[in-house]
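User: Could you go from structure to sequence for me? I need the amino acid at each position, not a summary. Structure tokens:
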């Protein structure tokens, strides 16, 4: 009986290890496919080309992780199951992450080693507010978040819960923003007519626009 138990235990361990390795390989392939689809979308040069496949790959992958890299260069997953994590900022000690395909912002508490815990849906946007695609973000000293809406030419100031307190129009689609200037009240906004890196490499179409705001940023606000 002991021999049978040992054999069963060994087979169970082998099966578990094999299953874990298989799942790891499948997840790796999904991430590689997502990354390739994202790269091709960024490099589009012909507006008439059919990119529905690439868009659907990115949109349907809801398990994209946030990767943390420490000072030694070691990388590990800090948070998973994100819908296209994008811009990040520190607000009131929490890490705020824009979910570009999740129409909202997620918040995390941070452990001393950088691990992200206690995920919270910090803000969600209703369909009647228009299509909002959070891209680059930054935080102000009151804890609100400015976000570049990569779906249209505007930046929004958002409070926890998703309340939009301010909208600023830009001349082109907004992709990132940061608070700066001598008093921290200059909102700098990176804009372009397209997200295509291939087009923007050959044509100087990008702009750095600026707007004055009432609430300054903080030294720890950050932007991406």
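Assistant: Here is the amino acid at each position, in order:
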């Amino acid at each position: 009986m002991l021999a049978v138990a040992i054999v069963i235990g060994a087979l169970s361990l082998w099966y578990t290890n094999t299953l874990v390795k298989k799942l790891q390989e499948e997840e790796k392939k999904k991430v590689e496919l997502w990354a390739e689809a994202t790269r091709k979308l960024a490099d589009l040069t012909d507006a008439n080309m059919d990119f529905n496949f690439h868009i659907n790959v990115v949109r349907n992958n809801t398990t994209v992780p946030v990767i943390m890299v420490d000072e030694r260069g070691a990388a590990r997953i800090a948070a998973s199951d994100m819908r296209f994590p994008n811009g990040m900022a520190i607000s009131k000690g929490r890490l705020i992450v824009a979910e570009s395909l999740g129409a909202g912002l997620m918040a995390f508490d941070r452990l001393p080693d950088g691990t992200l815990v206690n995920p919270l849906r910090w803000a969600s946007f209703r369909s009647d507010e228009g299509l909002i695609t959070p891209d680059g973000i930054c935080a102000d000293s009151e804890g609100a978040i400015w976000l570049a809406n990569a779906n249209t030419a505007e930046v929004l100031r958002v409070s926890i819960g998703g309340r939009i307190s301010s909208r600023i129009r830009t001349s082109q689609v907004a992709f990132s923003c940061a608070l700066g200037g001598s008093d921290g009240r200059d909102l700098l906004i990176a804009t372009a007519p397209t997200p295509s890196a291939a087009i923007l490499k050959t044509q100087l179409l990008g702009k750095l626009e600026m707007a004055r705001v009432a609430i300054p940023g903080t030294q720890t606000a950050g932007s991406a």
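One structural detail worth keeping in mind: The radius of gyration is 21 Å.
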